[in-house]
Amino acid sequence: MDLLHLLDLFFNHSLIGLLLLIFGVVYKIFPPKNINVFYGFRTERSEKSKEVWDKSNIYCAKKIIEVGMFLTILGAINLIVLPKMYSLFSIIAAGSLLIWVIVKTDKFIS
């Protein structure tokens, strides 16, 4: 297996993690300034005040970065252990962890 093929497989396995990592970094650098309906961590609790909105979005960005790093590493491990199951595995792991981020952030602001 050549290096280019190995890198291609790594990006296939870790794509969701890398995308979440990039999104999390952008979200941290450019957090939503005001409560809005388009961008940010939007729950009933997070929209109660500007202070809670800011606090929840900073925390959520941090958790998305953590999930992105975790999924990137998990994708690399999955490449070795289950190389033909990356799509299903990545979707299930990402979906579960994003639900965890929502629950964790909502508990953080309560």
Can you give a write-up of this model?
The structure is a single chain. This protein has one domain. The protein is 75% helix and 0% strand. α1 packs parallel to α3. It comes from Clostridium punense. Pfam families: SdpI (PF13630). This is Membrane protein.
Give the topology.
Blueprint: H1 3-29, H2 50-81, H3 86-109
Helix pairs in contact: 1-2, 1-3, 2-3
Keywords: Membrane, Transmembrane, Transmembrane helix
Transmembrane segments: 12-30, 64-81, 87-103
Pfam families: SdpI
Short structural summary:
The protein has 110 residues and is mostly helical. The chain has helices at 3-29, 50-81, 86-109. It has one domain (3-109).
Tell me the count of domains: 1
Tell the overall outline: elongated
In this structure, how is the largest beta sheet organized? none
Order of helices and strands: HHH
SS strand fraction: under 5%
- CA radius of gyration: 16 Å
Number of helices: 3
Sequence stretches where pLDDT stays below 50 over 5 or more residues = none
Protein traits:
single chain, 110 residues, mainly alpha
